[in-house]
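User: I've been trying to design a sequence by hand for this structure and keep getting stuck. Would you show me what you'd pick, starting by listing the structure so we're on the same page?

Assistant: Good idea, let's start from the same input. This is the structure you sent:
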């Protein structure tokens, strides 16, 4: 700080002299030895009297915490107390006689004089002796003393006051209750948060003992706590307190001593935080944790925790029981120390969790100490347990034994395999019809049975199945299904379906209705059997039985005719016997051809004709043209039946019934390549006139059916000269090259094309 001067025009010596005089004057003022001082002014020296120096006012001003000044009208400091001297870090004697403006940093002298004369309160920046700046507030009042106009100034250090205001603002805005106590426990301050926590207003709490906040069971602790804090101890605890309404509150307390600058404990500060909600949450968490612990220990599946060396940290009773070893014996041991046979599978899963940090699921099998020699199966899941920073701290595992399930799956698979084999062997298809949606399900066999590729989108599953039922069977089939829905009975039906390629297939269907708990039909399930072959066999058997009946009758008729014909040409019984024996033998050979032909072999057309007509060839009235074309055994049977039927009719009604009649049979092939046909002409001549029958009997049906067996047709013409029959059949249906001689192959080949 620069040297202070009252009058800058004086010489340094004069200044020193006057400073010495000022010090002497100040000492005289302090001791009360003088009543006035004289200060040089711009015009003439000014005299300031201090008649009141001995008054009690002087002692009060000296002890004030704020700075106190008496300043002349020109701004010269006439008096300064010790507090102001401390503010600017100078002795009092070096302050008196100095212009107040020399200590003010933000006001020039002229402006400061104006401020003293016009303002009662203003803020200034004081410059301390070391050059530091101090924020202060000046309160000014002017008075007249012995006709002299002076200013009395009170100077307040705002730096400490601002800190106090900030401190108070912080305490008042704090969410925690903050209050202070005397060393004997009397409340001295009380912030708004304390009002909210305890319910007491500040004016209600201040002056009361802290005991009002403490529940009865803790009253005896108060003296001990106060004593410990007054001896400098700080402590923190969670405890109960009581609010004004009498309700207990969970609080976290921080209790600290308030010490003066000399280290003595002047009071106690308390910070109280309401932890009621936290306690409630903690209690809830404890309950949930207890539930989790109970669930963990009593879970029906195995649970375990492992460290990074794969040693058991924890295990529940279920897993311990699976292993056959007490839970406590697992802790600190590796999994394979307990179950050695599982090491290969378990260890690799552990390492995968550590390497990838992901959940690993696996099925493992092996033996345990509980059941040595028995292979058991488990489904296990391994998962990482992480610390807050993401590091894997442990590995958790869940273990579910699936041995019984595995055995059931094996048995189910075996049953499924047997069922599938049975379904395939029996040509059975399984279907499931959803009555609520109209959709359904077919297995692979059902698709094949109905002529569709597996999972074909156009397959008529569910409601659409009726569309492929044969029109002649559809109504009856639908009635059976509806009856099953309403009667709680299964249905069994034989019906035909039309496959996509137009072929007809006979099915035996069996189904059952499934209902919901209210009895409403929701599904139908069942199976379909392919009975087409059975139906064909039944039709063939029926045809053969009727044909046998007809044939037996024809046989007797033929024998009767043969007897009659033979009798007309035989003169003795012996001749008759011989004739009949020959004809019956030929007829027997024809039956042998029909009955004994091996279906895997073939015969030529002329062989079939010759054997079928052997009983009539001895009369030399039957001629048969050669035809080396080989036909299948089935075709041979059909052709034999046709020939036998026509010959029987010829003997009974046609050309062979009279001695003048004769029969000519010609066989040939016509047409190129695959269009070639086998054509057989049957011509009767010389017999009685024939006419179209009034009705078609079994013989007509047998002829038509046998012609269809050849894959061809038969055309009958009833003329005056006798019956003419034309039989046509595609060679592709009846012909075969098996058994044809080398000389005949070329002819057959050309005929077949």
């Amino acid at each position: 700080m620069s040297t202070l001067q009252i009058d800058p025009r004086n010489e340094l010596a004069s200044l020193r002299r006057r400073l010495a005089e000022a010090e002497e004057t100040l000492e005289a003022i302090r001791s009360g030895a003088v009543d006035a001082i004289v200060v040089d002014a711009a015009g003439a020296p000014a005299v300031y009297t201090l008649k009141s120096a001995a008054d009690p006012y002087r002692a009060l001003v000296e002890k004030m915490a704020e700075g106190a000044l008496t300043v002349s009208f020109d701004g010269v400091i006439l008096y300064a107390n010790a507090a102001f001297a401390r503010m600017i870090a100078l002795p009092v004697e070096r302050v008196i006689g100095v212009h107040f403006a020399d200590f003010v940093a933000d006001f020039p002298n002229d402006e400061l004089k104006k401020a003293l004369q016009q303002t009662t309160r203003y803020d200034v920046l004081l410059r301390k002796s070391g050059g530091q700046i101090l924020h202060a507030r000046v309160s000014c009042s002017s008075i007249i003393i012995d006709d002299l106009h002076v200013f009395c100034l009170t100077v307040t250090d705002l730096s400490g006051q601002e800190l106090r205001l900030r401190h108070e603002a912080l305490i008042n805005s704090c969410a925690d209750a903050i209050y202070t106590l005397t060393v004997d426990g009397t409340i001295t301050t009380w912030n708004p948060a304390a009002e909210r926590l305890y319910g007491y207003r500040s004016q209600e709490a201040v002056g009361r003992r802290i005991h009002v906040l403490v529940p009865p069971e803790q009253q005896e602790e108060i003296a001990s706590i106060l004593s410990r804090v007054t001896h400098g101890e700080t402590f923190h605890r969670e405890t109960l307190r009581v609010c004004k309404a009498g309700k207990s509150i969970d609080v976290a307390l921080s209790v600290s001593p308030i010490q003066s600058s000399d280290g003595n404990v002047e009071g106690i500060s308390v910070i109280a935080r309401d932890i009621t909600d936290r306690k409630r949450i903690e209690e809830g968490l404890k309950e949930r944790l207890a539930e989790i612990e109970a669930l963990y220990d009593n879970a029906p599946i195995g649970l375990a925790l492992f460290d990074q060396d794969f040693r058991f940290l924890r295990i529940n009773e279920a897993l311990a029981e699976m292993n056959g070893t007490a839970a406590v014996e697992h802790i600190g041991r590796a999994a394979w120390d307990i179950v050695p046979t599982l090491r290969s599978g378990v260890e690799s899963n552990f390492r995968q969790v550590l390497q990838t940090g992901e959940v690993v699921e696996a099925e493992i099998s092996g033996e345990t100490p509980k059941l040595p020699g028995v292979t058991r199966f488990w489904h296990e899941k391994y998962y990482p347990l992480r610390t807050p920073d993401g590091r894997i701290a442990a590995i958790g595992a869940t273990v579910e034994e699936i041995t019984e399930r595995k055995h059931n799956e094996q048995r189910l698979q075996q049953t499924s395999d047997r069922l599938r084999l049975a379904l395939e062997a029996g040509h059975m298809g399984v279907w499931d019809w959803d009555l609520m949606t109209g959709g359904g399900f077919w297995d692979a066999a059902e698709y094949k049975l109905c002529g569709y590729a597996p999972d074909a989108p156009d397959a008529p599953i569910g409601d659409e199945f009726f569309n492929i039922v044969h029109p002649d069977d559809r109504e009856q089939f639908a009635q059976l299904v509806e009856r099953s829905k309403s009667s709680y009975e299964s249905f069994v039906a034989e019906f035909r379906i039309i496959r996509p390629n137009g072929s007809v297939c006979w099915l035996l269907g069996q189904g059952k209705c499934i209902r919901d708990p209210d009895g409403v039909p929701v599904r139908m399930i069942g199976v379909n059997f392919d009975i087409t072959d059975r139906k064909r066999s039944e039709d063939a058997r029926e045809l053969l039985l009727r044909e046998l009946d007809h044939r037996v009758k024809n046989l007797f008729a033929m024998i009767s005719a043969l007897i009659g014909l033979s009798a007309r040409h035989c003169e003795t019984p012996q001749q008759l016997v011989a004739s009949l024996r020959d004809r019956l033998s030929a007829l027997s050979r024809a039956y042998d051809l029909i009955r004994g032909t091996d279906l895997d072999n073939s015969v030529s057309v002329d062989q079939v004709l010759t054997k079928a007509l052997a009983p009539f060839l001895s009369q030399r009235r039957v001629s048969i043209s050669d035809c080396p074309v080989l036909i299948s055994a089935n075709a041979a049977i059909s052709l034999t039946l046709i020939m036998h039927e026509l010959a029987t009719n010829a003997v009974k009604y046609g050309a062979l019934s009279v001695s003048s009649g004769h029969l000519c049979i010609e066989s040939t092939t016509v047409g190129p390549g695959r269009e070639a046909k086998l054509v057989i002409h049957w011509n009767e001549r010389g017999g009685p006139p024939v006419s179209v029958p009034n009705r078609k009997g079994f013989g007509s049906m047998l002829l038509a059916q046998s012609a269809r067996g050849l894959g061809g047709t038969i055309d009958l013409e009833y003329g005056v000269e006798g019956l003419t029959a034309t039989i046509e059949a595609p060679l592709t249906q009846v012909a075969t090259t098996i058994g044809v001689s080398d000389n005949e192959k070329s002819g057959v080949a050309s005929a077949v094309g």
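That's my pick for every position. To get oriented when you compare it with your attempt: Residues 532-569 form the longest helix (38 residues). The chain has five domains: 12-161, 175-279, 299-406, 426-530, 583-752.
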